[in-house]
Recover the amino acids of this structure.
């Protein structure tokens, strides 16, 4: 089975809320809420992928020292296996702006389980709650 590597980021605001983005229409899992990020391009480091994706999707500039690895998810979908490391980021430049997603929202970690998220995202939630509280 093909392994797909996707880098994801939990942006955390001053109130310890986490940003989630709603997948756009026309894409797989459209309408579900996810952590921003994306697939690595050939030869791309996960940190570089996140920096690129956060600029493209949210219009913000993130510097590598502001990314801290937290956990990862490993999930078998029907046609591929997803490996998704999750970084946290508390510092960025610019204003978070919806560029590719249907919607964005800031959520307390304890409320993430109430959202309709892809199954691969579920194991990422407990470490966020442990770090930030409910």
């Amino acid at each position: 089975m093909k392994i797909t590597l996707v880098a994801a980021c939990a942006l955390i605001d001053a109130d310890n809320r986490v940003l989630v983005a709603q997948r756009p229409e026309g894409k797989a899992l459209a309408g579900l809420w996810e952590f921003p990020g994306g697939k690595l391009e050939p030869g791309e480091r996960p940190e570089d992928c996140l920096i690129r994706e956060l600029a493209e999707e949210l219009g913000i500039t993130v510097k590598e020292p502001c990314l801290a690895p937290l956990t990862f998810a490993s999930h078998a979908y029907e046609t591929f296996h997803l490996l998704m490391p999750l970084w946290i980021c508390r510092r960025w430049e610019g204003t978070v702006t919806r560029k590719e997603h249907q919607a964005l929202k800031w959520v307390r970690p304890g409320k993430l389980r109430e959202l309709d998220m892809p199954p691969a995202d579920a194991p990422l939630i407990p470490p966020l709650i442990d770090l930030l509280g409910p």
Q: What stands out?
A: The chain has two helices and seven strands.
